[in-house]
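The following record pairs a protein chain with its ligand, pyridoxal-5'-phosphate.
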Amino acid sequence: MSLRNEKESVVELKERLCELDILSSQLEPTASSRLELAQVVFQSADKFIEAIKTSPGYSDKLPHGLAIDDKKSSIGALLALYRTEVSQTGINCASGTHLGYIPGGGLFVSALADFLAAVTNPFAGNFYASPGAATVELEVLSWLKSVFSFPESSVGNLTSGGSISTLIALTAARDHHGVKNERVTKAVVYLSEQVHHSTQKALRIIGLGDVVMRKVALDEHHRMQVSALKASIEADLAQGLQPFLIVATSGTTDTGAVDPLAEIAAIAKLHKLWFHVDAAYGGFFILTSRKELFRGIEEADSLVCDPHKGLFIPYGLGAVLVKNKEAVLHSNNYTASYMQDAVVEELVQNPANVSPELSKHFRGLRLWLPLRFHGIEPFRACLEEKLVLTKYFRLRLKELGFKLGPEPDLSVSYFWYPFEADEEAKNRQLMDEIHADGDVFLSSSIVAGRFVIRMAILSFRTKMSTIDRAVAMIERCLRQIEEAF
Ligand SMILES: *Cc1c(COP(=O)(O)O)cnc(C)c1O
């Protein structure tokens, strides 16, 4: 009886499995279907790239029709939807006309790497699961260590971006200095007015929202004033507070300034403070003629850089380097019985041991492939080109009568028009006019209490012709404002 039942149930299960197989196998397209899908997606991507030189930088149109229902659509219909509702709404971040915030990249070879990484899907979280993928990641980190003259013994991790990198670095700083419990409100962090908000955000997330934060005064080039930093630390020590961290920026988001790293490093060393450098935007300019500005970066205890900014990789790739291995392992290295096969000789061979992430996208490939394919030289030239374009843009704006912020260290700068009356209101209108025009995208900020328009030149697709287009647009918008009054 029981035997019969069992037999029956095997038959039943086989039938059920056959039924389900018909439906679930739709998830693996056939060879001919794969080819067709790849071709139409490739054609659509290629059309996007071909049009990118002339397509507008910004559209204020809002997307529609993206909700998920249980209906099937053709790939053609979905690509059309993607084009109009995703690619053509908001800022065109892949375009060279994106001169706002910090521009994005989108190297084609990097996109191919993402495709390959997704198809082969190696587990990049630990060495045991994919020694190849882990090694690609470790080699990318080795290269980054050499770029910033960090010792090979430092640990690194490839993250989704500067914010998560900052989180890892500042957690290491916290744990190295044992900043917890009643020590938190006595601990002091030194940063500048121009620090990126990801620093404060990270501090808040890691339970350090109540530390004392000192905003160190800046000089006329928006760089941290070393004398003010020194005085602030001494005053805090005299008061019985516990300084533990200095955050310097090499390439501020609003003003393109590089803090005096070597001098700050010396102060950090003197007082045994953790020295963190945020090089998310500007770090890779170390590969250019401005190398000298980065002197002292090699003294940092931790450093954050963003290949999805300065190396033109598509969004989703940041990196963190930390000299103190134990501090990083302290918070991120954890194991469990189901991980018992995944042992390695060196803990840091496992990317997951130095990161909050376990399973993750094999993101090392999206930098490894372009670096190995193109070599470093075109990256260097492209960054140098951005520096020259910044000078060119500034000169052209000056010819139009604009006032300019100080000569930036790197490729972010700001400007405003000296209208005779209602200067701020009219500059705000000018910004609105520029957004309504949309040919080139610029963003605004407040620097030293003044409303200013920013230009951030970092896309590999930004060329002299882009700047000419930006100048023509600004001139056009300026005329509209002047005519309105
Ligand atoms: C962009 C930026 C960050 C944050 O990096 P994400 O990659 O956007 O998370 C941090 N610091 C600076 C200076 C930046 O420009």
